[in-house]
Amino acid sequence: MRAISLIVALTAVISCKAVQPDLRFAWKLVDYVWDSSAQRETAIQKGLFVQANNLPLGLARWKNKVFVTVPRWKNGVVSSLNYVDIDGAKDQPLKAYPSLKDNLVADTDESLPSNSSIVSVFRVYVDPCDRLWVMDSGLADIVGSPNQIVGPSVVIFDLNTDELLHRYYFKVSDMKEDSFFANIVVDVDKNTCENAFAYIPDLGAYGVVVYSLKQDDSWRISHHYFHFEPLAGSYKVGGIEFHWTDGVFALALSEPRENGYRTMFFHAFSSTKEFCVSTELLRNYTHIDKNEAFHDFKLLGDRGERTQSSASYYDPKTSVLFYTQINRDGVGCWNSNKPYTPENNPLLFSNSTLFEFLNDLKVDDEGTLWFLSDKLPRFLYKSLDPNDINFRIFSIKTTDAIAGSACA
Fold it and tell me: What residues are paired with 225 via a beta bridge?
């Protein structure tokens, strides 16, 4: 009996030794690559750089670059759009993209220094045409003395040349009084790069803006499913309790279906439910009957209690939707070939220290899952300890991540 117990115990230990994510980058506080040490000191003296106020939030990988965004939550953010070298040091300084000059915008500025200037970015998206799509909110010092330097805009860069391709400012009809745009996903095929559609959720005013690159036009979509759940707005992360009313935020696109259109999976930040809709409806929304279209938005199901998620990404190689788990300090998944139930939405890995507030995740074209943790609630409501590691980026092959789980 003792031997059987030992075997069972060893089996349990081995099963817990599944492949774990690799820690790729880690910072106590972030710094930047400056043109000179004198430039850095001047920026500090002028209040352009307050190191403790720089918090990484979004990420995306392209070739040997991992893009890292630093929104202007507070004053003194040097550069909102940056990257690190994939094989560089774990605590390497951030490199401004496309340049430090384009990112070094004062919080009190009243206009953009240039058309390629970047104000404040939460999320970015790399498309198969080697372009970087940036959702620039245009808002500086968000929780301090908010300053809308410029209106929200979609900014597109050519990653092979680092040149600005296009900038599109949202129309008045795209926005509401409480609008806040912080995410972007792009629907495009590498053989028809000019026919790209960007989908941008409005987490503050509960809508989605669609932008057509070919038409250079945008339109707003509204639906009940874009709202937050009143019973899912409470969080407790890192010992800090807070309450958010954020609506639709996480968007993820499937591979093209037989009709050529994709399925867009989406959910509100403060929600435990997942929904979906065909991109055919999103692309053609201005030409269809809105009452009939209402029923084309579908409820997939509920993940279960305390499963609020800040980001999601669909991996076409495994047919799995990956998503962050804010209240559970981990990453969850769902295999799209299975019913959407709590049992089919397992928590893949969880660690309250390493994964405290997982803010963003992406899957690159090599089938690697990347995700970032940043202790955002501590940053907003208390303060970060500069002696602790506060920001981390991890990676793991998607097949290794789901091995042995209900998502395999």
Answer: none
Q: What is the 3-state secondary structure (H, E, C) of 77-97?
A: CCCCEEEEECCCCCCCCEEEC
pLDDT tops 80 at residue 120: yes
Kindly report, residue by residue over 199-225, the tens digit of the pLDDT: 999 999 999 999 999 999 999 999 999
Contact criterion met (CB below 8 Å) for 386 and 52: yes
**Residue-wise pLDDT tens digits, 276-304:** 999 999 999 999 998 989 999 999 999 99
pLDDT at 258 over 90: yes
Pairwise CA distance, residues 376 & 100, whole Å: 25
Tokens of 147: 């300053």
Sign of the Cα torsion 187, 83, 324, 397 reads positive
* Angle ∠(45,48,54) on CA atoms, nearest 5: 120
* Parallel/antiparallel/unpaired status of strands 273-278 and 22-27: unpaired
What is the Cα–Cα distance from 364 to 371, expressed in whole angstroms?
A: 11
- How many CB atoms lie under 10 A from the CB of residue 135? 27
- Residue 9 pLDDT exceeds 60: no
Is the predicted pLDDT of residue 17 greater than 70, yes or no? no
Q: How far is residue 189's CA from residue 229's CA, in Å, rounded to a whole number?
A: 34
**Residue 10: pLDDT above 80?**
no
Contact 279, 187 (CB under 8 A): yes
**pTM (2 d.p.):** 0.94
How distant, in Å, are the alpha carbons of 57, 89, 130, 289 from that of 357?
10, 23, 29, 40
Cα(138)–Cα(152) distance, integer angstroms: 5
Residue 99 structure tokens: 């340049």
Single-letter residue type at 98: P
Nearest to 344 by CA among 355, 333, 356: 333
Neighbour-count burial for 332-357, b at 16+ CB within 10 Å, e otherwise:
bbbbbeeebeeebbbbbbeeeebbbb
**Is pLDDT of 7 > 80?**
no
